[in-house]
Amino acid sequence: MKRFLLASLSAIAAITTFTVSSCKVDKCKSIVCANGGTCETDGSCTCPAGYEGERCETITRDRYKGAWTVTEDGTVSSVARYVVSVENNSNMTSVQIRNFNNQNNAVLVANIVKDSIFIPTQTYTVGTLTKTVVGYGVITPEKFYEGHGEMKLYYRVTSSDGIVDNYGYQGNGVASLWTK
Hints:
Helix content is 11%, strand content 46%. By secondary structure, it is mainly β.
């Protein structure tokens, strides 16, 4: 009887151990991550660059695209208010900014990482002058409509004649405010 009881308990323990260890739920079985996203063991999606959202369903740069009203006051230039157009660029993680610094021919490329925008050093021409721009910014959700309706950009425009105009870049001047 003792042997039977011991054998029975051993069998129950083995079955319980096997059952408990083999009941791991595959959280990715019912998850589809869009746009090449990868499902992690916890059921969340890791999105490729240029996409975001719970299931990588949102194109990051879409929140930046459109017409923006710019209000800026540089350390050298006067207060200005004008409109820029932010459009798709050739890759998913960047946009083109047209009419930058209120210059019709100024088309800059900016890189997007979630709520941050980075303007790598680049140039454009105004008459006989070459302007060099570098900067960064942050987009913030609009409180009432929950869209992304405000962006602060911090940049510096250096002219080939030696004049430097700062718009909050590295703490100099006031950031440029962009609103939709």
